[in-house]
Design a protein that fits this description.
1 helix, 152 residues, disordered N terminus, 8 strands, alpha+beta
Amino acid sequence: MHSTASQGLVSAVAGIVLSLCLAGCTESGSEPISSYSVAPEPDSSSMPYVPATSVPPASDPERLPVTAVPPELVGEWDGDRADYSFASNGQVGITGIGQGTVEIAGNRIAFHVPGIAPWSVTWRVGHCADPAGYGYSYRMLWLDDVTYVADC
């Protein structure tokens, strides 16, 4: 993980980016910023829903449901509420919660952590960019409406 100062910087930059984008993502009040693009949201109508909340929590980590993680999601993601670490084999670490696995189907991701009821959210990843122009490029992950950032 990153140092506290680095996390503060990442959070500050993410806040600036969000403010800019909410204000229209423009440079000098003219055209929209083109250096930052967000991966298009998949059409969830054709994707299967992962019924994670209907599955009781598993007590045996070896028996947790798991799928491979797409390359764009693999790595460490920092956020204000928690940090996530996704491995390509479907393992996940969540600060303050623990270690578990994920099941991914389209734009849905289900989290399975021993002793905790599974939960499911939508996800998408933004491309590596320096949207604020400060010389620091990063990617953004959205889990439902909560954002997380990762180094490029």
